[in-house]
Amino acid sequence: MTTQPVAAFEPPYVMAVFSSVRTADDTGLDELNDRMEEIVQAIPGYLGYESARNPEGLGITVAYFRDHESLTAWRENLEHQAAMRKGRAEWYESYTLHVATVERSHGFVRNA
């Protein structure tokens, strides 16, 4: 797991923010997430993601894509669609998805 944010990308680009609360039994979810990461990394235009979960169980994953077409390719991937159905049926109490176009982006890294 990384402790650094993803780099600032050259705008415009697209981000999908997935906020979720899991069910008590998330058996198998980590393995499926590993597979989803393999798939999304192969999509042209995928830039990266960041993810965190607080002790109370709220998780936020932000995925970055070069454009809406690359995000659409991810949304329409058949394995991803099956994973979304399984997530609704078994692993998530609730979730929200926000999609936005980023107009400005910058970062900071302290010199060691």
UniProtKB/TrEMBL annotation:
Q: Which UniProt keywords apply?
A: Monooxygenase, Oxidoreductase
Q: Which GO terms describe its molecular function?
A: monooxygenase activity
Q: Which organism is it from?
A: Streptomyces amritsarensis
Listed InterPro entries:
ABM_dom, Dimeric_a/b-barrel, Jasmonate_Hydroxylase-like
Q: Has UniProt tagged this entry with the keyword Oxidoreductase?
A: yes
Any idea what this protein is called?
Antibiotic biosynthesis monooxygenase
Oxidoreductase as a keyword? yes
Entries under PANTHER family matching the protein = ABM DOMAIN-CONTAINING PROTEIN (PTHR37811:SF2), BLL5343 PROTEIN (PTHR37811)
Any one Pfam family here would be: ABM
Q: Which residues form the ABM domain?
A: 14-85
Q: Output the Gene3D superfamilies linked to this UniProt entry.
A: 3.30.70.100
